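Progress against Task 2.4 (sequence-to-structure conversion) is shown through the following example record, which the project officer requested during the mid-term review.
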Amino acid sequence: MTLGKILGWGCVLISLAGIALDLADLDLPRGYGWLLLGWGVAAASYAVVRGHMVAYVTKRLLEAAFVVFMIATLTFVLLRFLPGGPFDAEKALPPEIKANIEAKYGLDKPLGEQYLDYLMGLARGDLGESYKYIGRPVADIIAETLPVSFQLGVYSLLLAFLVGIPIGVLAASRHNSVVDNALMIFAISGVALPSFIVGPLLVMVFSFGIPFSALTGLLPPALWESPVYYIMPVITLGLRPAAIIARLTRSSMLEVIQADFVRTARAKGVAWPVILYKHVLKNSLIPVLTISGPLVAGILSGSFIVEIVFGIPGMGKHLVQSVTNRDYPLILGMTLVFSTMLVIANLIVDLLYTVVDPRIKLG
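Structure tokens generated for the chain above:
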């Protein structure tokens, strides 16, 4: 086994071990996060060097830094030009008190000076203090809520791929059959139903129950305290991406099934399951990978609604409240975190192209 496979499978096994411990409601070992991060960086670095993609990845990282910088700049400027301020309330503060508060947070300075102070704080890793949660650094709020939102996003993505790809494969292999039609009706329904409808419906059925239902009280309606609390939020957030992946996998596989190499393999007597899973599926994953970047964006933005519906103490709740309260530092900090995650997700998707199809060269 090559070093690349050892690093790759090691990263997968460490991730699966962490998920298993979390679902078993056991505490993760101390330093687990750093172990996973270090192993993942080592695997990615080896793949980049081995694939002669150092220049490409360096260029993409520089582009990503510029994108995040522009997002921070535009968010900063737009917040300052929107009507209203962080300390405007229904009952107006006395002018001298409002002036003292603005001076404390540097809001009395010219806009250019405020922007420079913000950039200098970012360079030091200081995101500032929240205006709403007095005395609490934004970095502490993010560190407290990010793991919960990350858990919700990861489990929803796993559900989307583990359900969407098999459904797409099964539908493609039973093309124009009753199974195919039934699965596509399910997929279309999943795409059409928004999460703010799916979530309350699940709560009504599995928590409060319909009249004379045996499902009443089967699942907790809110919070994020143990694995049983994960079920409904993860289904709510992962249902639509799973339906999108299922439809895309099916359409992509139907195109590949018509290829010459598939007909040749069948003529040679290769078993149909081997053709389907070893050859057709692998050559059908490029469109699925392409849509994975936008799906991550959809899951992250959709988590705002899901976290509010189910009372999950994640970043989404704080982001919505920070917008309502005009909490500038918290809005900027949350925006930077989400934009960084999206940029990294798109970079990972691009690198995975070379894993799925070695003929693709990134340069």
